[in-house]
Specification:
It is a single chain. By secondary structure, the chain is α+β, with helices and mostly antiparallel strands. It contains 8 helices and 8 strands. The strands form 3 sheets. A 4-stranded mixed sheet has the order 2-1-5-8. Strands 3-4 form a two-stranded antiparallel sheet. β1 and β2 form a beta hairpin. It is globular, with a radius of gyration of 20 Å.
Length: 176
């Protein structure tokens, strides 16, 4: 299980064993290998927005801790004794119906109702034909800048092939 957590311009994929220490941070000596203190993602996001991608993959035990943080806007780093206050907006995403997961046993319903204040459903790319050309051109521009190359035009035949494809991997597949 992994959760992608991003704040500002930093992102990391977290294995389940590191979720708590990476989100909450820790003090020196909090656990074996904690040779120094490290602020967590919550500290980085303080005063800004924390984006939790694939939140439905977060283990239930951490969902309870996240719910408490969102409700109270406070947390204690691992090995810490002082409560840290937080001023953070939480934005989350999941590639399946989170409400369905909350009705089952894979996602806490109380956390779902806490984060579902504004829900934006984005249909898969295969249902948004007009976006394929727009996104294709966008990615050409992004990678042209990244590799310091002049942007190329996408031939009409190529665009027709892109638009005819089903895109099971959605936007990430198109980008690659």
């Amino acid at each position: 299980v992994s959760v992608v957590v991003a704040t500002r311009n930093q992102a990391a994929t977290l294995p389940e064993t590191l979720v708590e220490s990476e989100i909450f941070g820790y003090h020196k000596g909090a656990f074996t290998g904690a040779d120094s203190s490290k602020p967590g993602i919550l500290a980085w996001a303080n005063g800004g927005t924390l984006f939790l991608d694939e939140i439905g993959n977060l283990p239930l035990s951490y969902q309870a801790k996240l719910l408490r943080v969102i409700q109270e806007q406070r947390y204690i780093p691992l090995g810490g004794r002082e409560m840290k206050t937080l001023d953070t907006r939480f934005v989350s995403a999941y590639n399946r119906d989170l409400q369905e997961a909350a009705q089952g046993s894979t996602f806490r319903s109380d956390l779902y109702y806490r984060i579902a204040g504004v829900t934006i459903v984005i249909p898969p790319l295969r249902e948004r034909d007009g976006d394929i050309a727009l996104l294709s051109r966008h990615f050409v521009q992004v990678y042209s800048r990244k590799y310091q190359r002049p942007p190329v035009d996408i031939a009409d035949e190529t665009m027709a092939l892109l638009c005819a494809y089903h895109w099971p991997g959605n936007v990430r597949e198109l980008e690659h």
